[in-house]
From TrEMBL:
YqgF/RNase H-like domain sequence ranges: 537-636
Native organism: Antrostomus carolinensis (Chuck-will's-widow)
Organism taxonomic ancestry: Eukaryota, Metazoa, Chordata, Craniata, Vertebrata
Domain of life of the organism encoding this protein: Eukaryota
Protein name: S1 RNA-binding domain-containing protein 1
SMART domains to which the protein is assigned, alphabetical: YqgFc
GO biological process annotation, one example: nucleobase-containing compound metabolic process
Region (Disordered): 1-72, 118-137
Gene Ontology terms for molecular function: mRNA binding; structural constituent of ribosome
Length: 683
């Protein structure tokens, strides 16, 4: 105790002498435990420490008699300070004896207790009920928790706050305010590389609601998992671009390629177009007073534009109406519904009206009921789904033949172009895309007639299923009513369902063929534009020809035009022209000849090959190559070529273009319209 400051010793003696019931060291620890049991911290989470109060000049306190509660508080503070001092005295000399001292408050000194003293003590009653709201004060300095002993009315506690309790606090990354954190997907719960299958949580709300789920339909059409489709719809709604999604949202799209993303986006736009047109049609029919509950359901079940046209065609302005509509106007709809639901009470003779057209006899009444039933069957969702599934399991072929009108009064040249398709038949699952496009062109020119052949087995099975399962009457049918039902099913298939299936098959085949043609053009164009350039050489471009001669153009390694000329190699003057070519090659030190693959290409190639084999151009080691000249003639008369080479003849411009296609293909081919480059399925 001799090493302690004199002021501290005097304060300690003064405080301990005021209370006669000062316990021994054995009772000190138990008393501190009692104090700890009396109070429980409000929260385990460490709070920011208070800053020490500024020293303020306070007037001297007058000594007044203390109450028992005040003496008890002072006694406890004094006991803790004495324990701290005695522990420091008993500490070995190699340990640090320094004690942090806080600025003095009032008439006492504040000692900051190190963390090591609290390691061994644990609070006994952390889970007990809190009696009084008191605050826990924690000072943290260089990773250590330090408690401050203050001389306020409320004493500090000895409850240790461990470092790991602070670490368990929930990180800010996992907090979500009203909406999911789209931009912070990669967190502790969803690390990189694991798919996030539920981005938004709630069902996707579209602007135009339909009877089908857009996520499921999109998944069926594109063969992409539903959760990926759901995530993609939300990402597209947030106006994310395909490059951004493909690069930075891989965990949301199951690592799909950019082409697959474009296909999903295009299909999504088509479905939304169908939904938008459907609701426009509904509003139009509602305004005209033609909308019924059955028609509304049929419209909301449409998934393609073909189905929408099939359902809405009879209700368009200017339409005469279908046979079913005319029969409904005559009042035969209750009879048709009664045939399916309550046939025992149906009496068709009661609907006969001799003076009314369409109801004059029993045959006309039966025909009207049959037309209404056929219309109901053709617009039923389950019926259409069954016939589509049935067609997928059977052999459906597309056939083309020469039209009778074109064979009599048609252009022979055009007819010969489609000779392969005069008697053509192929399964729709195996037909090639270019064949579909060729058949469509022939049909547009009225040279070919095209039809989709569905076998009779599909019709027979479909009719049996409708009569015996889907549209089976709820009660016994009389033979004459059963005949009406069968005739209605056959009429629905032949007059309504079969044309709808043909349109769907043709539309699907055409759409796929057009997509493939664009993709093929892109692949071929990519390979053409990425052809390796021949740099650092002086080139001679040759545009071959017979009557007008072969056009020559010599360009420098930097694509500058050095010389242009015309030689006639195929008119008996080949030897004399060879001297001219040799002189030009030697003059410009040109050792590479580029020949276009147009008219007279093979003859020009044989001419140069013969001269090279005889080493006619020695000492130059001349080589030649053949390049595709598609689009060169069109480019030579284009406005771009006129601006670039205003003084040259169009024939010579094509020779320059041929030479530059070898020197820098990308820079030269971008000047030509894509449709003239000649790399697509059809030109």
């Amino acid at each position: 105790m001799s090493s302690l400051p004199r002021k501290v010793k005097s304060e300690t003696k003064a405080l301990t002498s005021e209370d006669d019931e000062l316990p021994s060291f054995l009772n000190l620890s138990s008393e501190s435990e009692e104090e700890e049991e009396e109070w429980e911290p409000k929260s385990k989470i460490a709070k920011r420490p208070r800053l020490p109060k500024k020293d303020e000049a306070k007037p001297k306190k007058v000594a007044t008699p203390r109450s028992a509660v005040a003496r008890k508080k002072v006694k406890k503070v004094a006991i803790k300070e004495e324990m701290l001092m005695l522990n420091m005295v008993s500490m070995p000399f190699w340990q640090d004896l320094s004690v942090p001292v806080a600025p003095a408050e009032g008439n006492r000194m504040q000692l900051l207790k190190p963390k090591e003293e609290d390691v061994g003590t644990k609070p006994k009653t952390l889970n007990q009920k809190q009696e009084a709201p008191k605050k826990l004060q924690v000072n943290s300095f260089q990773g250590k928790n330090v408690r401050s002993l203050e001389s306020d009315e409320k004493p500090s506690t000895s409850v240790p706050v461990m470092g790991n309790q602070v670490k368990h606090e929930k990180s800010e990354e996992d907090f979500a305010f009203d909406e999911p954190p789209f931009k912070k997907i990669k967190s502790t719960t969803c690390p990189e590389g694991k798919p996030v299958k539920n981005l938004g949580g709630n069902k996707i709300k579209e602007e135009f609601e339909m009877n089908w789920d857009i996520v499921q339909v999109l998944s069926e059409i594109t063969n992409v998992e539903p959760w990926v489709c759901s995530n993609l719809i939300r990402l597209f709604q947030e106006e994310n671009t395909i490059p951004f999604i493909a690069r930075y949202r891989k965990e949301l799209i199951s690592n799909l390629e950019a082409d697959a993303l474009r296909e999903v986006q295009q299909t999504l736009e088509e479905l939304r177009t169908v939904a938008k047109k459907t609701h426009t049609m509904i509003q139009k029919l509602k305004k005209e007073g033609k909308l019924s509950g059955c028609l509304l359901t049929a419209l909301l079940n449409c998934r393609t534009l073909e189905e929408l046209d099939h359902v809405s065609a009879p209700y368009k302005t200017g339409s005469k109406g279908t046979k079913a509509q005319r029969a409904k106007q005559l009042g035969l709809e209750p009879a048709a519904l009664s045939l399916l639901q309550n046939p025992m009470e149906l009496n068709l003779f009661s609907y006969i009206k001799p003076n009314t057209k369409g109801l004059s006899n029993i045959r006309e009444v039966e025909a009207g009921v049959q037309h209404i039933l056929a219309d109901i069957f053709a617009k039923d969702k389950d019926t259409l789904d069954f016939i589509r599934k049935l067609c997928q399991q059977r052999y459906i072929c597309i056939q083309s033949a020469l039209a009778k009108v074109s064979s009599k009064s048609g252009n022979e040249k055009d007819i010969d172009k489609f000779q392969l398709y005069h008697e053509f038949s192929c399964n729709i699952k195996n037909i090639q895309h270019h064949q579909i496009l060729a058949i469509n062109r022939g049909e547009n020119l009225k040279i070919l007639t095209v039809k989709v052949n569905i076998p009779d087995g599909v019709k027979n099975e479909f009719c049996w299923w409708c009569v015996n399962e889907r549209w089976r009457p709820k009660q016994f049918l009389k033979p004459e009513l059963m005949k009406i039902l069968r005739n209605s099913v056959e009429d629905a298939y032949k007059r309504l369902i079969y044309p709808l299936l043909c349109r769907e098959f043709r539309s699907k085949l055409t759409s796929d063929a057009e997509k493939e043609s664009v993709m093929m053009f892109g692949r071929n164009l990519r390979q053409l534009l990425l052809t390796s350039p021949v740099r650092g050489r002086t080139l001679m471009g040759v545009d071959p020809g017979y009557k007008h001669g072969c056009k020559l153009a010599i360009i420098s390694p930097t694509s500058q035009i050095l010389h242009t000329d015309v030689v006639y190699l195929h008119s008996g003057q080949g030897f004399r022209e060879a001297e001219k070519i040799k002189r030009l090659l030697l003059q410009f030190n040109c050792s590479t000849v580029v020949i276009g693959n147009g008219t007279a290409c093979r003859e020009t190639e044989a001419y140069f090959a013969d001269l090279i084999m005889k080493k006619y151009f020695a000492p130059l080691d001349v080589v030649y190559c053949i390049v595709n000249e598609a689009g060169a003639s069109i480019y030579s008369v284009s406005p771009e070529a006129c601006k670039e080479m205003p003084e040259l003849d169009p024939n010579l411009r094509s020779a320059v273009s041929i030479a530059r296609r070898v020197q820098d293909p990308l820079a030269e081919l971008v000047k030509i319209e894509p449709k003239h480059i000649g790399v697509g399925m059809y030109q």
